[in-house]
Design brief:
Layout: E1 2-5, H1 7-15, H2 20-26, E2 28-32, H3 33-44, H4 50-58, E3 60-63, H5 68-75, H6 80-92, E4 96-98, H7 102-110, E5 115-116, H8 118-127, H9 135-143, H10 150-159
Parallel strand pairs: 1-2, 1-4, 2-3, 4-5
Helix pairs in contact: 3-4, 3-6, 5-6
């Protein structure tokens, strides 16, 4: 399964030391060059993680977006990484786009893009037996600064039988 990931997805899983889940679940993980640049910028400012750099060198494929006009049009409304991720999804016929940004998700949805976010990936991992529990990871995500509303937090725990 081919998944295109936005910056925040990679960072979320890195921060909770579960970046490997993306590879284990999807096998074929791709990011746009703009996402790579954002991740590397995080490395320069001390917010990047060496596991992200290693993953980009080993199993995350980096691709250049071809349709620059579409990219520039989307960048008017959303960030560079989000825009590039959406365009890359369409150019590569990816199975899913992993993205959390609400505005970008709305635009992607309107374009017919199949979307998943951090919480959806955690649910998939639990459903496939790759995780025994998601609650500790949700708590860790919150601890490292990820915003997860109480409604989504409780819904996911209920859906996976942890509440």
């Amino acid at each position: 399964m081919l998944i295109t990931c936005d910056t925040n997805i990679i960072i979320d899983f890195s921060k909770i030391n579960h970046l490997y889940l993306l590879k284990d679940i999807f096998n074929n993980v791709m990011i746009a060059n703009e996402v790579r640049e954002e991740l590397l910028a995080g490395e320069e400012t001390g917010t990047g993680e060496s596991d992200i750099i290693n993953a980009m060198n080993e199993w995350i494929k980096v691709k250049e977006v071809k349709n620059k006009l579409a990219l520039e049009s989307l960048k008017i409304h959303i960030g560079d990484g989000e825009a590039a991720s959406i365009i890359l999804y369409t150019e590569t016929n990816a199975d899913l786009l992993a993205i959390n940004d609400l505005k970008a998700r709305g635009i992607a949805h309107a374009m017919g893009v199949k979307i998943i976010g951090t919480l959806g990936i955690l649910r998939l991992a639990k459903d496939r037996g790759m995780l025994k529990q998601v609650k500790p990871l949700l708590d860790e995500l919150r601890k490292v600064g990820a915003y997860i509303s109480n409604v989504l937090y409780n819904r996911l725990l209920k859906d996976v039988g942890e509440m």
